[in-house]
Amino acid sequence: MSEKKISRQQVYTLLVQIGRKDGDGLPKDATGAALMIYASGVDEAEAVRETVAILKQADTAPLDVTGYGTIQEREAAGHEIETEERTLMQRALEENAVIVAQMTPYFGDEISAAENGLLH
User: Fold this and answer.
1) Which stretch of DSSP H or E encloses residue 72?
2) Taking the domains of the chain in order of start, what are their residue ranges?
């Protein structure tokens, strides 16, 4: 009888600021962007490393990563997590993936993505 291995993977919510780079796919006049990402990992550090590696492979220039923790940590902090977010988080867990849930380009001297309502 083979037992299913229990995974230590969890999904972390990350807010990644990216700068400009040739071929990044951002709008022409954008100065950068904020990406809300759900990434799986055994800990947040692993999720961040994997996310940065994948974003670099995708010809983007990650500048800063802010971690908001697991779904349980976010709920404990009072974050409201909608069904669509939960679905994407579950997909990231099942596929051991990095999922970009939202991209907000910056134009000029805009406020940070967290203040801009990217994360609620």
Assistant:
1) helix 71-76
2) 10-106
Three-state secondary-structure class, residue 65: strand
Can you name the residues that pair with 12 across neighbouring β-strands? 39
- pLDDT by residue (tens digit) across 3-56? 555 668 999 999 999 999 998 899 999 999 999 999 999 999 999 999 999 999
Question: Token match 């999720």: residue?
Answer: 47
Question: What tokens does 24 get?
Answer: 């990044």
Q: What are the pLDDT digits (tens) for 91-101?
A: 999 999 999 99
Q: Is the pTM of this model over 0.70?
A: yes
Question: 38 and 56 in contact (C-beta within 8 Å)?
Answer: no
- Distance, in Å, from the CA atom of 63 to the CA atom of 95, rounded to the nearest integer, reads 26
Burial of 16 (0-12, 13-18, 19+ CB in 10 A): buried
Burial code (b: 16+ CB inside 10 Å, e: under 16) for 22-42 equals eebebeeebebbbbbbbbbbe
